[in-house]
């Protein structure tokens, strides 16, 4: 049952273009063992990413810091919502574990995201800064990408993250403004755009990036307008993929976007001058992120 008392409908059968062969447990076992030994979370597991087997078998993962309990309740996300118990005093140690795991995996591009931590004064920004610094210390030749929450619009928190000098700053818009109240209660489209714009103003050399999910009831014109908004705020990298309902408690898929339509959106993103584009049914914000940056 959803928070409003309704039950999400069972989505239509997945089309063939969204079907992937099951991954081999042996291909992912070693990475999972490393993550458990390091006491680390990944958004790959928590958000039930459809690409988990492929990415884990490649030795790549998106580290999720600041614990595994989120203070937000976005209706598309399967990460646990509740009262976090991880205090800020543990952030430095977690950052060291992220760096150690990244080194063990031999990563050339390290992606770090987090749950939302509205319970903290800085929204967890210091946790990002400590993790980036630890990776920089241990892997000086690797690039670092951060995928952050909105910090409730706090530019001071944003500056803490950017002062750590990530190579890519990512904050996902997730959906078009008309659907925010239903999809992202507690978030604001304008606030997220302002965060992306300020990131480019404050740290112009850092690549700014955002991503959206499609299939939640958005109209094509709304997606194109969102792209225009992003470009007007200096966003350079754009990703888009098909939303897939993680459980019956979450929002149902309104429609499955066809590969032809994804090709259309990719073409429109190119026309608008995005320099880094990843658009397709199975694309996720951090999917093959290493292929969209060169050191």
Short description:
The chain has 295 residues and is of the alpha/beta class.
Span of the ends, CA to CA: 47 Å
Order of helices and strands: HEHHEEEHEHEHEHHEHEHE
Write down the overall geometry.
globular
User: Based on DSSP secondary structure assignment, what is the total number of beta strands?
Assistant: 10
Describe the structure in your own words.
- This protein has a domain at 26-211: TIM Barrel (Alpha-Beta Barrel).
- The N and C termini lie far apart (47 Å).
- It has helices spanning 25-37, 43-46, 52-57, 91-105, 125-138, 155-162, 180-183, 189-202, 220-232, 259-271; strands at 41-42, 62-65, 69-70, 80-81, 109-114, 143-147, 168-170, 207-214, 237-242, 276-279.
- Helices cover 35% and strands 14% of the residues.
- With 295 residues, the protein is of the alpha/beta class.
Provide the descriptors you would attach to this structure in a database record.
295 residues, alpha/beta, TIM Barrel, eight-stranded mixed β-sheet, two-stranded parallel sheet, 10 strands, 35% helix, disordered N terminus
Write the layout of secondary structure elements.
Layout: H1 25-37, E1 41-42, H2 43-46, H3 52-57, E2 62-65, E3 69-70, E4 80-81, H4 91-105, E5 109-114, H5 125-138, E6 143-147, H6 155-162, E7 168-170, H7 180-183, H8 189-202, E8 207-214, H9 220-232, E9 237-242, H10 259-271, E10 276-279
Helix pairs in contact: 4-5, 5-6, 6-8
